[in-house]
Amino acid sequence: MERCLRLFKQDYFISEINTVTVEKRDHQQPFPLHNHDFNEIVIVCSGNGLHHWNDYVYPITSGDILYINPKDVHGYESVNDLRLDNILYLRESLFLSSTIESYLPKVTARHNERSWRIQPSSLKLLSPLIEQLDIESKKNNLASVHLSEALFLQLVILLDRIKQAPTVALPTATHQLDLLFTALHNSIATPFNIDVFCKENHIASRSLSRLFKSQTGMTITGYLQKRRLCDAMSLLRTTDYSISMIAAECGYDDSNYFSSVFKKLTDQTPSEYRAKFNDKKE
């Protein structure tokens, strides 16, 4: 595995008895690959960027929820007005562990079981809890530690409840976004036509495009391109597929055009990108 920074709990938790804390990143800058000796829930509040997570790379934007384990290696790049609420917690030291565990992904959960999206409107439900948790977690008396865990329990229950809520209960605008994200995630290797999608789902394409841009800071085409290139980055790092095969897997019929777009985003050709990671593994 390539080298990465190691972050330690004593640099973030104010005392040895504190088990939960909040790190707000109102202007998250690019951050190199790192891991830490604590668990973390990352809530993407606004903006966008690329998230490296073990051998996966993909765009993140408003509403993405990530559960990071201590052994995970992750980092951020190509950020654009990215704002995060990071909830750090010591999973094995929680006083309310037996209850909280019921609402967290299992320790052995796969990557795709520890990342999902909530509707942007649901972020407003989380905000008051996070604000109160932020205040209490900066105190080191036992009552505040217990209250912090109680607030954290409320937060993970609310996240789980939002995740389990039926799609039909979602507001119209956010339901449209949810349908669109699902369609985009299923269109990595195949063409995507916004007009066809909107016609099939009885949605006005112009208003959907405006809504998407206001919530993510990206155009629909720009997001899909980033998503495809992120999949290509993962394949370059983890397989020996040819460049033309990877281009086809990621929705590009022309491997030369794929290489041109890839270099524009990363300042490297696909071959240079692959070589960089192969060198680190040696």
Automatic annotation (TrEMBL):
Keywords of the record: Activator, Cytoplasm, DNA-binding, Repeat, Rhamnose metabolism, Transcription, Transcription regulation
Signal sequence segment: none
InterPro entries membership: AraC-bd, Homeodomain-like_sf, HTH-like, HTH_AraC, HTH_AraC-typ_CS, RhaR_RhaS-like_N, RmlC-like_jellyroll, Tscrpt_reg_AraC-type_HTH
Keyword Transcription regulation: yes
Source domain of life: Bacteria
Gene3D superfamilies, A to Z: Homeodomain-like, Jelly Rolls
Keyword Glycoprotein listed: no
Domain HTH araC/xylS-type: 178-276
GO MF, one example: DNA-binding transcription factor activity
PANTHER family reported in the protein's UniProt record: ARAC-FAMILY TRANSCRIPTIONAL REGULATOR (PTHR43280), HTH-TYPE TRANSCRIPTIONAL ACTIVATOR RHAR (PTHR43280:SF13)
Name assigned to this protein: Helix-turn-helix domain-containing protein
Phylogenetic placement of the source organism: Bacteria, Pseudomonadati, Pseudomonadota, Gammaproteobacteria, Orbales
